[in-house]
Amino acid sequence: MADRPRPRRAVVEMASYSPPTAGRAEKLRLDFNENTVGASPAVVSSLRRRLDENGLAVYPEYGESKRKLAAFFGVSPDGFILTNGTDEAIQVLVNTYVGNDDDVILLRPSYAMYRFYAQVAGAAVRQIPYRPADLAFPLDELLDAITPATRAVLIANPNNPTGTGVDPDGVRRILEKARAAAVLVDEAYHEFCGVTAIGLLEAYPNLFVSRTFSKVYGMAAMRLGCLFSQPENVAWLAKAQSPYSVNTLATMAAEAAIADGEYVRSYVSEVLAARELLYEGFERLGIPYFRSQANFVLFHAGDRAIEIRDRLRDRGLLVRDRSYELPGSVRVTVGTREQMRRFLAALEELWR
């Protein structure tokens, strides 16, 4: 057999991440926390109006889009980079600030890409568990774990899959304890809870905040995110990023999406009402669940978790088994009230 290059040890030792994305067409998608009704019609209309053959032949230019997004988020254009989804935001931050054997702190369970990119970098990853009784944010435990040698702290607020979060005062305490570390606050689900750390950026040079257009904006296929920090940090991030990782269609879509604020407000209002309906359904059925600050709810199905997932899929409803992190748990995305009634009706049939 011919010789072949040997991967780095960090890559050999890490587990693969293979999200179950096949066979989702024509089903009710309650498994990936996407917008369940789609992007604003204004987004599609704008793409049809603005896109032409010549536009596809030109490398992206981000200036105008960045100016509009900066005004929308209340930051300066040099205070953020556009990224290929939140995944690239995590990757760029880790590539910029984390080296081999560096101390990186994560929470568990949380978004798999934090661990993924930290492991690719060869970091020494430590994980702090969410409090088992109510999956509350382990603020004191996290603060105790931070040392002067910590290079990065990566958290989601609110967290996926627990749905729980930390308040702004807690974020400040983390930032003050981890002064030598890059602290990422991933706000993928910000619109459903209203808590943000963006207002803290000017005061804390170790703060990084990410946002995505994949959730409330219904643009997961576009792969667009933003990574915010102080301009001096952003200049370093830009050095570690491919110059054209974000495509022109994504930036066009983002401009239209932020201009249609009513669409987002309406969808958020519907999701919050549907979340209450879901709580009521779980309580009626006697199914344990955790209250959430996001557009998903984690419930406990015990040793039936995988069975429930599979039998719901047979009925055209997709949910996400999270037993590999929290035994017996299943996560369901909150969509519209009509969609939650359909989900609860199917679950009730199976739960008997």
Q: Which helices and strands, and how do they pair?
A:
Elements: H1 9-13, E1 28-29, H2 41-50, H3 53-56, H4 63-73, E2 80-83, H5 85-97, E3 103-108, H6 112-120, E4 124-129, H7 139-145, E5 150-156, H8 168-177, E6 182-186, E7 207-212, E8 225-228, H9 231-239, H10 248-259, H11 261-285, E9 289-290, E10 296-300, H12 305-314, E11 317-318, E12 320-321, E13 329-333, H13 337-351
Parallel strand pairs: 1-11, 3-4, 3-5, 5-6, 6-7
Antiparallel strand pairs: 2-8, 7-8, 9-10, 10-13, 12-13
Q: Please tally the helical runs, counting DSSP H or I stretches of 4 or more residues.
A: 13
* Structural domains: how many: 2
- CATH superfamily heading of the largest domain: Type I PLP-dependent aspartate aminotransferase-like (Major domain)
Overall geometry comes to: globular
Integer average pLDDT: 95
State which percent range the strand residues make up: 15-25%
CATH class of the largest domain: Alpha Beta
The profile of the biggest β sheet is: 7 strands, mixed
Which key phrases capture this entry?
352 residues, Aspartate Aminotransferase, domain 1, Aspartate Aminotransferase, domain 2, 2 domains, four-stranded antiparallel beta sheet, 13 strands, 40% helix, globular
